[in-house]
Design a protein that fits this description.
Blueprint (H helix, E strand, L loop, with lengths): L7 H39 L4 H63 L1
Helix pairs in contact: 1-2
Length: 114
């Protein structure tokens, strides 16, 4: 739904709901990543392997989680970039509509005067 056609109070309500949804999604994502990391670490530590094998497994798991976190951060950054671009587009549309209204009012004023 484009924000251009909404009333100011509706825009604020829309933005609040959107922000709340984003916060909930971020919390869920963080919880899932933390749970997965804790589970993997406990699984590796509880396994009956030699110390060197356990350290290698932990290092590999750490790399895997670092890659997963990087991918998620890239995904979030892409989403934020898209939202910023949408806001820019909406701002340009509002600006364009405002300029058109000003020109329309100028025409109406000239027609009324002369």
């Amino acid at each position: 739904m484009p924000l251009v056609n909404l009333e100011p109070q509706d825009k604020r309500k829309y933005n609040r709901l959107k922000k709340k949804k984003m916060n909930n999604t971020s919390k869920i994502l963080l919880g899932v990543l933390a749970g997965a990391a804790a589970g993997a670490i406990l699984g590796v530590l509880m396994a009956p392997d030699k110390g060197s094998a356990t350290r290698k497994k932990l290092a590999k798991q750490g790399e895997d989680y670092a890659d997963a976190i990087k991918d998620k951060l890239d995904e979030i950054l892409d989403g934020v970039t898209e939202k910023i671009n949408n806001v820019k587009d909406e701002a340009l549309a509002i600006r364009s509509n405002g300029k058109a209204k000003v020109e329309e009012y100028k025409k109406d004023a000239k027609a009324a005067i002369g």
